[in-house]
Write a structure and sequence with these properties.
Elements lengths: L3 E6 L20 E2 L3 E2 L1 H10 L4 E5 L5 H7 L8 E2 L2 E6 L14 H6 L2 H7 L3 E6 L3 E2 L4 H10 L3 E7 L2 H4 L4 E5 L5 E6 L8 E10 H14 L5 H9 L5 E5 L4 E2 L4 H9 L10 H4 L17 E2 L4 E3 L2 E2 L4 E2 L2 E3 L2 E2 L4 E2 L4 E3 L2 E2 L4 E2 L4 E3 L1 E3 L4 E2 L4 E2 L20 E3 L4 E2 L4 E2 L4 E2 L12 E2 L4 E2 L7
Parallel strand pairs: 1-4, 1-7, 4-6, 9-13, 15-18, 16-19, 17-20, 18-21, 19-22, 20-23, 21-24, 22-25, 23-26, 24-27, 25-28, 26-29, 27-30, 28-31, 29-32, 31-33, 32-34
Antiparallel strand pairs: 2-3, 5-6, 7-12, 8-14, 9-12, 10-11, 10-12
Length: 427
């Protein structure tokens, strides 16, 4: 569809993901073994035959730039096709950082106008889903809508204070909208996927640039369009996950497991850029004769000598003899040394769990004290390049921040709910 372009909001850091977004935007956080969050939006766009994509990002974009490259893994390269990173830039005295989602798209209207699309699809780059946008475009145009927003039926108790909720009449028209209400009047949660008629998008963004305060699509632009423009809802019945907190990130990975996983990566055909160290591709998975693996996702380059159950292992992960990993997520090149135990944990890239160390010990007795809303379900997080030294013990709902080394540990154990920073700071 050459008359549709996609703008993917791949903006910034999410505080609730703690150390996972300390050195990368959420859109670049690894997910599902070999993928990153942004792969789900890019793959859905590619499968929908939308060939022009702008990616809007401003927080630590280096890993995102490397990952996107020319767009070749998603077939977004060639005449009439392409992906372009759109960071904020200095052009005149009015230039500034992106102040919100609406402002980010507004500052890149030059990209939209250059390609003269009939419609603009605005997506978030940090959600897990698979969608064909072609039926949405068809229905949008047939109805004459100015904006079609994608919604999903959701228990209001699960979504209150977290998502926007739309009220929709029998004809599919949006007649009311509340952003993160404590008591939603509807069951239809917004998935922050918007298909705009181009001229309406331009007019509303220009208006918001003059009069807005939050400069957000969801809290200012969308509500201002109700009763003024033709806004419709499209219901998505498939899987969708925001995975905004550490707990939700861990749970989304558990949705990859089981006899009938909620996330079927093989059927979804998600595309990504293969990442590996050195000059060659990673070797196939290798499991020793004494290794035991049950209900796992094992990526290329994984080496297992110990025991792994109900876990997701990214490329290059090593689980040494005598080590036991259960209900956990280990990102690229993490190492679990001999005799160590890891239970209900997320270990970021290059993390090391030392010999006989334990991560995830004891009962879940309280949320993380530093991030009580993000780490409260019993999952502990070990940040990128961090080390849990030999024999050390880490409780539940703990956070070991990025870069913590053996010399930063002052005590033999990190009690449940505690956080450890560099230079030994415990909170």
């Amino acid at each position: 569809m050459r008359d549709v372009i996609a703008m993917i909001l791949a903006g910034g850091r999410v505080e609730e993901l703690a150390a996972l977004t300390q050195a990368r935007p959420k859109a670049a956080v690894p997910f599902g073994g070999q993928y990153r969050f942004i792969d789900f939006a890019l793959s859905s766009v590619a499968h929908s035959d939308i060939g022009r994509v702008g990616v809007l990002s401003q927080y630590r974009p280096s890993s995102l730039i490397d990952h996107l490259g020319t767009g070749e893994p998603w077939d977004l390269v060639g005449r009439g096709r392409g992906v372009k990173l759109l960071p904020p830039f200095v052009a005149d005295a009015q230039s500034h950082w992106y102040r919100g989602t609406a402002d980010a798209v507004y500052q890149n209207l030059h990209f939209v106008r250059r390609h003269k699309p009939r419609d603009v699809l605005v997506l978030s780059g940090d959600h897990v889903y698979r969608m064909d946008f072609r039926p949405i475009v068809e229905a949008h145009r047939k109805s004459g809508a100015d904006l079609t927003m994608v919604v999903k039926d959701m228990d209001p108790e699960l979504g209150r204070g977290r998502f926007g909720f739309a009220e929709v009449d029998a004809g599919g028209r949006v007649v009311g909208y509340e952003e993160k209400p404590e008591r939603p009047r509807s069951r239809l949660a917004s998935l922050t996927m918007y298909l705009f008629r181009t001229e309406v998008l331009e007019a509303r963004l220009e208006e918001n640039a003059r009069t807005g305060s939050s400069f957000q699509l969801y809290s200012e632009v969308l509500p201002a369009m109700l009763g003024r423009d033709h806004v419709r809802a499209h219901r998505h019945d498939g899987y969708w996950s925001y995975a905004r907190s550490v707990d939700a990130y861990h749970q989304a990975h558990m949705d990859l497991l089981g006899e009938r996983p909620a996330i079927d990566l093989a059927r979804w055909e998600i595309r990504s850029r293969a990442e590996h160290a050195g000059l060659g591709d990673p070797a196939p998975v290798w499991c020793a004769s004494a290794a035991r693996c049950q209900d796992c996702v094992l990526s290329p380059g994984v080496r297992v000598e110990g025991e792994v159950r109900r876990s997701v292992l990214s490329p290059g992960v090593r689980v040494e003899a005598g080590a036991v990993v259960t209900d956990s997520v280990l990102l690229h090149d993490a190492v679990v040394r001999s005799g160590a135990r890891v239970d209900r944990a997320v270990v970021d890239k290059f993390g090391v769990i030392g010999e006989r160390a334990v991560v995830g010990e004891g009962p879940c007795e309280g949320a993380n004290r530093a991030l009580p809303d993000a780490i409260r379900g019993g999952v502990s997080l070990v940040g990128k390049g961090a080390e849990v030294p030999s024999g050390r013990r880490v409780g539940r709902n703990c956070l070991v921040e990025m870069g913590v080394q053996a010399g930063d540990w002052r005590a033999p154990a990190l009690e449940s709910g505690a956080s450890l920073g560099r230079a030994g700071g415990v909170s």
